[in-house]
Write a structure and sequence with these properties.
single chain, 379 residues, alpha+beta, Peroxisomal Thiolase, Chain A, domain 1, 2 domains, 9-stranded mixed β-sheet, two-stranded antiparallel ribbon
Length: 379
Amino acid sequence: MSEVYITRTASYMPNEPVSNDEMESYLGQIGEKASKSRRIVLRNNGIENRFYAIDESGRPTHTNAELASLAIRNLVNSTEELKEIDLLTCGTSIPDQMMPSHAVMVHGWLPETNNIEVISPAGNCCSGMHAFKYAYMSLKVGDKKKAVCTGSERLSRALHADHFELEVSKMRELEQNANLSFDKDFLRWMLSDGAAAFMMQTEKNEDGPSLRVDWVEAFSFANEAETCMYMACDKEADGTVKSFMDYTTDEIVEKSIYSVKQDVKLLGPNIVSLGFKKLHETLVAKGVTPEDVTYFLPHMSSYFFQPKIADALEEYGFPIPEEKWFTNLKTKGNVGAGSIYLMVDELFNSGKLKKGDKILLAVPESARFSYVFSLLTVC
């Protein structure tokens, strides 16, 4: 079978970066009160800038599909090159709509392309890596010649205060605590918008570096763990989730069922321990040693998890020194399915890479604890 290479990378971030102090002016104040959790969350996550596809009045400036298409336009050298693409795979946590699929909407923003195969993996942070793996396998078996895969998010509209005002006003009417629950408010200060794309081919670049895809491995722990991060549903006391389809229209609005939520009680104890034990097992099975790794790119929602990941790797006998870690979480924010693409893009275009360097990618997903790992070699 053919070798598969990432031959080019590109990204697109909407509008100007938004600092910590500016966030609430974009996302709005719920109940006309500043969030009590914002400063605590920001102090722990270590993010200093993020990007929003909305303006300061909360009006959208881009769709999710449009962001991905603009990253692809930054990827290609010419309009004519769009016609050479024969596979498009696009991952995201929250598409602009339930139907049609996200990837066909991205395709719709690229009318210069041909009638090609288009794939939309469902999921959260791992959906971008599943898109990557589908492109890798299609090229590996010789089914395609030139593939583009993307990871993108546009979550800012779902985080805006106007999505929660009715819920808070109902609590006020009932004389209950009129603060948004932490599982919803927490995520308002964690997430960012943006997109990035990879060009993947079976021939490496003649000039400049390429990244050979050595392997991609994915794992789910949904058979062991409850749902942790969710949207368009709510979590019951027994740990099951209730679909938006099983709520009345009034309940959907009053309970802000379409908001993104995270069960933080499950997040901390599981996200590192489950996935990074599996990463260690995978690396041992593949014969990879800590010395082999030149750059370690872990997708993290927060710098809070960095020492926990380091401790876990140390415990499992696979320590990776801090100087080998590479992340742009501080400057780009947590872009979910797009984060690992944005890290690879920045490193690929940094001028730092040397032939033979090995890049280890680790993408955890808290939704129901899924993980994707991959090893790339610079050539």
